[in-house]
Amino acid sequence: MRRLFYAFAAAVLTAAISVPALAQANSSHTNQPTRMAAAKTGEVITKSGNAIDSDLNLARYKAWDEFRSSHPQIVRELDRNPRRVRSAAFVNQHPALKQLFAANAGLQEDMIRHPGNYLAHMSAVRKQHRRGESARKA
Description:
Elements: H1 2-27, E1 34-37, E2 44-47, H2 58-70, H3 72-80, H4 88-93, H5 95-103, H6 107-113, H7 116-137
Antiparallel strand pairs: 1-2
Helix pairs in contact: 3-7
């Protein structure tokens, strides 16, 4: 009787451990992004499988990207001090920025809440530039 009890307990314990592990193994690969590298350009392309982008306002990001390309000086000033986005005086000083915020409702508020979504690119470029300067000095 005791052997039967131990055998039953071992089977239940094995099932309890293996079922969640199998469930994780089957679902983990479906939502993971896939990374591919382009050998000629050195560019890394990330494709997301089933990622939902409905919560992203892609029009805002596109508008900001275009603005960033055409107004690098303003973006540099914002990168140095992202709190300037809140400043009415700063925005009024730069008519192109004021026009961008007027044309894209919610962009200014989003930049206040999540400045890294917009200004992280410039921080990375600045760090890369500094590394190049320090390498030249050495």
